[in-house]
Specification:
Helix 5 runs antiparallel to helix 6. Helices cover 75% and strands 0% of the residues. The protein has 226 residues and is mostly helical.
Length: 226
């Protein structure tokens, strides 16, 4: 239960900082600022609750851990549930804050939801969205597995992981808004509805495949130190 609470709280931090920066401050800080907010949220979570649960904050990361042989399937299910709940609560709170501004509506201004195609940021295709999310998640989970393996400098893991997520956002915000995390996508989509819900399958399937592949490659020893 302590691990589930930690994962829920950590995922709340990720979505509140990341999506919150996009919704509440996006026009002031731009894509660079939003990227840093997502990265810094990982650093904050890693050093606050990492010792309790490992600070996965992401079903794709947890699935990668299962594929790498570092986590059981039963624990994965519990982690994923906690992560999704944390993301939903964060999205709800962001929406409640944002609606305090007179000209804000979820329909017009969004909630930091992911997407692709006509009307969404760079209007990239479904194929582009799938490729980006799969590859970016593979890279992200590979970094996490490497930074947290035996022999890696443990004190630096949170920083390395947070900077990697920031870099991924710098590359991909205009493509999909960057998910690499099904929980992060589910939370805002539930309240945004419409196109966000229609597109959601991409941001569940592609990150999970990318995370699982990263775990398989790691377990095979190709990205593992020993």
């Amino acid at each position: 239960m302590k691990k589930m609470i930690a994962e829920g709280f950590g995922t709340f931090i990720l979505v509140f900082f990341g999506c919150g920066s996009a919704v509440l401050m996006g026009e002031h800080i731009g894509m660079m600022g939003i990227s840093l907010a997502f990265g810094l949220s990982i650093v904050a979570a890693a050093y606050s609750i990492g010792a309790i649960s490992g600070a996965h904050l992401n079903p794709a990361v947890s699935l990668g851990m299962v594929a790498a042989g570092r986590m059981s399937s039963a624990d994965f299910v519990q982690y994923a549930i906690a992560q999704i709940i944390g993301a939903i609560v964060a999205a709800l709170i962001i929406m409640l804050i944002a609606t305090g501004k007179a000209d804000y509506t979820v329909a017009a201004n969004g909630l930091g939801q992911n997407g692709f195609g006509a009307g969404y940021l760079g209007e990239y295709s479904l194929t582009a969205a799938l490729i980006f999310e799969l590859v970016a998640t593979f890279v992200f989970v590979t970094v996490i597995l490497g930074a947290t393996q035996d022999g890696a400098p443990a004190a630096m893991a949170g920083l390395a992981i947070g900077l990697t997520l920031a870099a991924i956002h710098l590359v991909g915000i205009n493509v999909t808004g960057v998910s690499v995390n099904p929980a992060r996508s589910i939370g805002p989509a539930l309240f945004a509805g419409g196109k966000a819900m229609a597109d959601l399958w991409v941001f569940i399937a592609a990150p999970l495949v990318g995370g699982a592949l990263a775990g398989i490659v790691f377990k095979a020893g190709l990205t593992r130190a020993s």
